[in-house]
Write a structure and sequence with these properties.
With 151 residues, this protein is α+β, with helices and mostly antiparallel strands. The protein has a single domain, classed as Nucleoside diphosphate kinase-like domain (Alpha-Beta Plaits, 2-Layer Sandwich), CATH 3.30.70.141. Helix content is 38%, strand content 16%. A 4-stranded antiparallel beta sheet has the order 2-3-1-4. The two termini are 15 Å apart. The mean pLDDT is 95.
Length: 151
């Protein structure tokens, strides 16, 4: 089963959007398997954004993600990465369709409410930055038979 990391960014936490963001992803049918409120330190932010280290916007990313509390979550399900990416909307909220998280809740590229892993490989790397294996639960939901096709 695929997993993906979601970060409810400091702007969304400050705006009181944690429940809205998490609920929208849960409504897709993906299963929440880890969740915590945290403050990301600069070293962890550097590790998380390592692929952007030589880009002009890198320092801004680090400054923003460390500016306040975030909510870190892991969601699980078939095609979890793609489903979360579609639910989030385009990175630039101006390009996000109405109904997506960013399309409905954000208007600025630099304050776009949510981060989601961009590939299964990135998800694995990112999840390991923020969660130890014992923080991620494995469990069955009573509704799984109504969400997932099984042979």
């Amino acid at each position: 089963m695929e997993r993906t990391l979601v970060i409810v960014k400091p702007d969304a936490v400050q705006r009181g959007l944690i429940g809205e963001v998490i609920a929208r992803i849960e409504r897709t049918g993906l299963k929440l398997v880890a969740l915590k409120l945290s403050k990301i330190d600069r070293e962890t932010a550097h590790t998380h954004y390592q692929e952007h280290v030589n880009k002009p916007f890198f320092q801004g990313l680090v400054n923003f993600i460390t500016s306040g509390p975030v909510v870190l979550a892991v969601f699980e399900g078939p095609n979890a990465v793609s489903i979360v990416r579609k639910t989030m909307g385009a990175t630039n909220p101006v390009d996000s369709v109405p109904g997506s998280i960013r399309g409905d809740l954000a208007i600025s590229l630099g304050r776009n409410v949510i981060h989601g892993s961009d590939s299964p490989e990135s998800a694995e790397r990112e999840i390991s930055i923020f969660f130890s294996p014992d923080e991620i639960l494995s469990y069955e939901r009573a509704i799984d038979n109504w969400i997932l096709e099984r042979d």
